[in-house]
Amino acid sequence: MDATAAPQHVRALSEIERWAGETDVLVVGLGCAGAAATLDAVAAGAEVMVVERAGGGGGTSSMSGGVVYLGGGTALQRACGFEDSVEEMFKYLMASCGPAPDEAKIRVYCEESVAHYEWLVGLGVPFKAVFYPHYSGEPPTDDGLVYSGSEEAHPYCEIAVPAPRGHVPQTTNQAGWLLMQTLVAAATGSGAEVRVDTRCQALVMDATRTVVGAVLRCGGEETAIRARRGVILTAGGFINNKQMLRTYAPLLRQCKFRVGAEGDDGSGVRMGMAAGGAAINMSMGSVSLPIIPPKTLQKGMLVNARGQRFVNEDAYYGVLGEQALYHQDGVAYLVLDADTFVKPEVARDVAGTGETIEELEAALALPHGALVDTLAFYNRHAARGEDPLFGKAPTYTVPLRPPYGALDCRTASSLYAVFTLGGLWTNIDGEVLTPDGAAIPGLYAAGRTTACLAAPGYSSGLSLGDGTLFGRRAGRAAATRPTS
Amino acid sequence: MDATAAPQHVRALSEIERWAGETDVLVVGLGCAGAAATLDAVAAGAEVMVVERAGGGGGTSSMSGGVVYLGGGTALQRACGFEDSVEEMFKYLMASCGPAPDEAKIRVYCEESVAHYEWLVGLGVPFKAVFYPHYSGEPPTDDGLVYSGSEEAHPYCEIAVPAPRGHVPQTTNQAGWLLMQTLVAAATGSGAEVRVDTRCQALVMDATRTVVGAVLRCGGEETAIRARRGVILTAGGFINNKQMLRTYAPLLRQCKFRVGAEGDDGSGVRMGMAAGGAAINMSMGSVSLPIIPPKTLQKGMLVNARGQRFVNEDAYYGVLGEQALYHQDGVAYLVLDADTFVKPEVARDVAGTGETIEELEAALALPHGALVDTLAFYNRHAARGEDPLFGKAPTYTVPLRPPYGALDCRTASSLYAVFTLGGLWTNIDGEVLTPDGAAIPGLYAAGRTTACLAAPGYSSGLSLGDGTLFGRRAGRAAATRPTS
């Protein structure tokens, strides 16, 4: 690309001839984080303008399963008969959210989770007080509560008392649209000015490196809007930006099924970086390898290209995918026998079959004797319901007997549902931080424009969860910031 | 950190009251990349100023082993009786340099490698035309050529014809000081103005986002220097910046032995990012797990916390460390028997011993039966010199017989020699690129301030190699850029 063609994601205030308008808080993007930011900024007394490049709000959130990861003892958890506490939720997230969990953010997330659920209910998001036990992830029913992470799986079940924390709006199948219908309606009716078909082209910074507004484009015309208190970037991730994927997250290109609205081209991340913000965990994505439903398929044995097991098969399917893509070169097969095989609900090819394990091993072209040994070891312990390597739960740990078959779980052919988890580094108030850890005055971000709480170690519902909860906090922080 | 305390890595031209001096090209840092950039910028006819924050040049390069990764048929390779070609070198690097190798840079690196060796010789860097066969990495002798990567190991030996490409200046043990003594002397005598004890505080950018100079600090006083053609950042990596490690490369914190001068605090990377540059591969590091010398230790069997093998033990020790840290949670043991055990030259604790493999398994607290099975499988094939899982070379693939011992190769106690490989994204001319892939006018970088060619997949000598070769290219590009 020629240097002169470089997009200018930041413009100097001195370049701005006139402001076409002004507001206290400018929110960029009307997905879950943008709606939440808008609502709390308005509630805090600010004048708010929201711009959305699409024809209407919703974004990727409205294409999602609608699961919101919440806990600590929400009314829904209690109504479904589950006990949970801030401390157990905190322990689970600290253990599962990668090698460098953001303790301050996880603490806030857990402490504010119960109230955040009430806030969603107060807006009119319906949740049916029925626990759906047959699946981890989005239920096909309209039930309201599911496990959406690895809470019941080793090692997490020994670290924190498990509780289901996937809160799902009441509608069958994918519930994201319902969540977003409610949030967008609330944001639109909040008194904020909502401009659709309007793209944020660049941030405007003054000589003190404070963000003081933005350049918008609508109908081919550029206008500059002054934001007296701050700009909040909630413009999604970058799964639909080929160059950013190649540069920052090349492994994600192996996954064919990408979850993201057209707007997930990383524009928010790029504007934040251009303003001096650090982007972190940029190679990470949520990589779901749904071997379930039904859960009985967790009785299978997942092996890599060397016929070795590498994870407990009852870990959350986000963890399965992450392990397969990042640590096993994207090669995995799920070995099953006649008793454990059922047709998977997520269509998946049969990679090989065999009357004996030797035959299956040959069919999969695994190293001679490797799968034979792996199965013998597995069966020896499974006869007692034990999995000494990975601690799979006894329910799913049974010997596998001939004949055998293996489902294809390789990246190239079958990994599902990938979106980016890396993004701008923010603090608990949504302020965008520089690589030195300093806040950029006037600049906030939330949602997948920011790095997820969990990267790696994703549990479903954390994106809608951190997007809305930290979106609200960003809205409040921006609304109460002294005017620039 | 309070926002007002944020370091300002970029200053607007409008903030600069006066230039205290000017030059064509300003080079920041006098390590290998800075020296190389200086020499070629001067040779291209530019006026050059180099600033070094330490009392003298050398940087981390002078603390290194001095290995320079070069090939394609250098005079040294030929004198030692090895054939090599640009194409074989290219194939090796494309295969080994991670999931997204930078083809354009690797191509240039290979094509210019022979001439680059001649350039080093022309400057007076001595290389003894003797191949050192007993070790991969820096030889303890003054021999000039070694294997310094995984060229002879599976799968690379099947992809490209192996050739040793580690070119080592002639002195015993660590040779980095000799390389740098020569390069610094040449840079100092080149006609460039060298200022030591001088720190680059910030880049200066004009209203068109062109880098036009820098703010320096010396003796407590700040001065601004105009750089008519460009600024070249060659200020090292960030292994000595705790916060950047925590933010970008948390796994590297597990490694205790950090290779880096005091200046490796990421200041170059941070200035480049503040100017709009993308930083890539930021989580990656060179993580050496030297199980050798002597090479006979490669006959051992490296296993993880589940008693599984995970790599061919004859892969380069940079690859062993990377696999252990990034994919095995930093847990590895090297299992040996009486025949294969020799005292490792790099001190390493004995993690456990056993008259039988069952006893060793118990001593290492591995899952019951796991190591027993792994060894049985290994021995069965090793009896024929075969390693069907990882393709270790027959020379090192022999059955292991009781009694047994295991060397501790866990991150916490034993990983060696880590430095950062992530950094600014640059093109073949050293121009710093934005996340959009556009060059930032007037800004160049080289050395570990930039992302390494190989991250992951490090071969030793690539840092001194890409630092000097792309340092020179940056010097020439900056020197011939039209003045701002």
Write a structural description:
Two copies of one chain form a homodimer. Chain A is of the alpha/beta class. Chain A is built from 14 helices and 21 strands. Chain A has three domains: 3-63 and 177-286 and 417-479, FAD/NAD(P)-binding domain (3-Layer(bba) Sandwich); 68-173, no CATH class; 290-414, Flavocytochrome C3, Chain A, domain 1 (Alpha-Beta Complex). In chain A, 27% of the residues lie in helices and 21% in strands. In chain A, the strands form five sheets. In chain A, strands 1, 2, 3, 8, 9, 10, 11, 20 and 21 form a nine-stranded mixed beta sheet that branches. The two termini of chain A are 35 Å apart. Residues 1-5 of chain A have low confidence and may be disordered. Chains A and B meet through helix 8, helix 9, helix 12 and strand 21 of A and helix 8, helix 9, helix 12 and strand 21 of B.
